[in-house]
Please model this.
Amino acid sequence: MEGVMQKRRKAEAAAFGFPAPVRPGSTRVGWIGIGVMGGAMAKHLLAAGFAVTAYARTPAKAETLVAAGASLADSPAAVAAASDVVFTMVGNPGDVREVVLDPSSGVLAGLHPGGVLVDCTSSSPSLAREIAAAALAAGCHAIDAPVSGGDVGARDGKLAILAGGDEAVVAWLAPLFAPLGKPTHMGPPGSGQSSKIANQIAGAGAVVGLSEAVAFANAAGLDAPLFLDAVSKGAAGSRVMDIFGGRVLSREFASGGPVWYIIKDLGMALEVGDGQEEANVLPGAALYRQMFSAMAANGDGDMGPQGLITVIERLNGVRK
Model:
């Protein structure tokens, strides 16, 4: 009996999801999480010709996506039932667990055998491994694929996609990843999330360096725009400087995603006992998290990370 069920599942999978070819117009895409990043990414898939069914806790927030051609469903399970591949881009690991693993309304409750879940949330490596195992038990596949590049990368379709899971499934997803950015297979389930946490440590350090450099340049009486333009051509130049440098100078702190997210990600780097992640003596990450947490304590948790310069200024008695 078990052999018959396995053959049936394989037949359903071949007709529905992996490994049937991914094609615009035939592969159905689900999208859960339509904030600044998720909304831009879903629009790229619509523009590439894929049918998209979305779920939003607040349907009014999906108006621009619906205007671009998306359909709305009333639960993550309903999105999954109408999709071959479901992307999730939500706030934190608790949200991921709810929208994916809830036994009645979660993605895996509605996804057909052969369907593929792609979680782009910056989340927990151990949760990614748990979800991969649950998907496999349901005859489906799960890829943890957090992204780096911020709102600019999402807008321009130039995100770095850090994918963990079955390498064949990651390769199969290439036509869906192409409008979003560049995917890299990082290893088995959880590897994408571990890579994103490491990325956030490096990115946070770069934001701290940028903020202190501009604060120092201002205090020294330098022409800050001229300074940044000059050093961006040398060893101090970075993608972080390219994205956030102008925003720091113009004091445009609203864009880039709330700093709460980087506080969350750095917290995961410092957690002990999260499965295979044991390099928890990370003094730089701990310091960066304290500095970004100071932003939140000052009432600026909804600012983008470039708002960190306000913390440096407060420490130096500068108010702007």
In short: The mean pLDDT is 92. The CA atoms of residues 98 and 131 lie 11 Å apart. The longest strand covers residues 181-187. The chain has 16 helices and nine strands.
